[in-house]
Specification:
The structure holds two protein chains of two kinds. Chain A is of the alpha/beta class. Chain A is built from eleven helices and ten strands. In chain A, strand 7 and strand 8 form a beta hairpin. Chain A starts with 11 loop residues before the first strand and ends in a 6-residue tail after the last helix. Helix content of chain B is 11%, strand content 37%. In chain B, strands 2-1-5-3-4 form a five-stranded mixed beta sheet, with no helix packed on it. Classes of the chains: A alpha/beta, B mainly beta. At the A-B interface, strand 1, helix 8 and helix 9 of A face strand 4 of B.
């Protein structure tokens, strides 16, 4: 298989684009896709400080490296979930990566804030992935606002976005369908959230990480088995295999024709947002969801005879 | 014989017969973009020939949380 651009032996086959690239031309293609996302959706303006959420996986570390190479002022943010073994390994990868590339890093330890994920799993009767996601998003936004970052970037790729859009569509969740996309503007106490990798698949971000020698955290979260997103991704992988290009067509079509319609509905019926009475983060419920989780975990931990 | 390491499962398999990457992927029930196929410091495309003594690393790309 030869590179479509330079005819050298290819390393990256991309059936969705009916093409293949050598490593140098793939690097140019990858940068081009990120630039296109940033330009088309106005993700980052000149001079803005960007906070990049780093999990230790291929997507977030690849995004951080690419944005720094493009000359953006980036700082990493890692949320240490406090899960034995798994969180230590993920954090070590993030710290090693930032040290190697001379990149700035902030770490938030959930255990210091009373919400280590093992306690959330033990004391809260709801899917732990949902609570964990809520807590992480809370800290991403809080650090961005408190420390003067205009933009919060996450490494969500096309597969993540399509799986999420599919899940939101299965539930016809108008609230989420009204604002899912590569850019969510800053408003009501939320920093601007961007997803510069949304045009690139998981395979492409994995190739980028490998070809750039990025050491990644590959072990799955010990609490994520049976997560519905994994099943949705498998379903979409099958669709993409039989009809290459289906994922990006579905997602781009939603951005052009679906999201505006849902945004209009939500504008008419969405709940008003105000600062949380406890932490100041935006919420529509007086006390925000993360503060309520913190209170519930603290109460049940105090009543747990095993923790006396 | 070729040796195949599968990540993140940490599984090692050996195959007596070998031909192309595509045949190996089919044997492992993987589609072209389900995993990186790595030999040394290079990525292999489905048409690449495998050789006796090859050590191949299969890195599945789907993140699960």
């Amino acid at each position: 298989m030869k590179c479509r651009k330079c005819k050298a032996p290819a390393e990256v086959p991309l059936p969705s684009h009916n093409t293949a690239f050598c490593r140098d031309c793939f690097a140019a293609y990858f940068t081009g896709q990120v630039e296109k996302s940033i330009r088309r959706h106005g993700l980052i303006n000149p001079g803005e400080r960007v906070l990049v959420a780093l999990s230790g996986g291929k997507d977030s570390l690849g995004l951080m490296l690419e944005l720094s190479r493009m000359g953006f002022d980036v700082t990493g943010l890692h949320v240490d979930l406090g899960i034995p073994v798994s969180s230590l390994a993920a954090r070590a990868k993030v710290e090693g990566f930032c040290t190697l590339h001379g990149l700035k890093l902030r770490v938030v330890e959930l255990a210091k804030h009373g919400l280590p994920i093992p306690d959330v799993k033990k004391y809260i009767n709801r899917p732990v992935c949902s609570a964990c996601g809520k807590i992480k998003r809370h800290w991403f936004n809080r650090v961005a606002l408190e420390e003067g970052f205009q933009v919060l970037a996450t490494g969500h790729n096309l597969d993540d976005e399509v799986a999420r859009l599919f899940a939101n569509t299965l539930r016809w969740d108008a609230g989420y369908l009204s604002d899912q996309g590569p850019c969510l503007d800053a408003e009501n106490g939320f920093a601007r959230k961007i997803k510069p990798l949304y045009r690139l698949t998981e395979f492409e971000t994995a190739c980028y990480a490998f070809l750039n020698g990025i050491e990644i955290h590959t072990a799955p979260c010990p609490y994520s088995s049976g997560a519905s997103f994994t099943g949705h991704k498998e379903l979409w992988a099958r669709l993409e295999y039989t009809s290459p290009g289906t994922k990006i067509a579905f997602y781009d079509g939603f951005l052009k024709r679906g999201r505006p319609a849902f945004a209009q509905v939500e504008q008419e019926s969405g709940a008003p947002v105000a600062p949380c009475e406890s932490c100041g983060s935006p919420t529509s419920t007086g006390t925000c969801g993360v503060c309520r989780l913190g209170i519930a975990v603290a109460e049940r931990r105090a009543a747990d005879p095993d923790r006396q | 014989m070729i040796t195949v390491f599968i990540e993140p499962d940490n599984e090692t398999l050996t195959f007596e017969r070998h031909n192309t990457v595509l045949m190996l992927q089919r044997k492992l029930n993987l589609r072209v973009n389900d995993a990186l196929v790595i030999r040394g410091d290079k990525l292999l495309t489905p048409d690449c020939q495998l050789k006796d003594g090859d050590e191949i690393r299969i890195r599945k790309v789907m993140s699960t949380g």
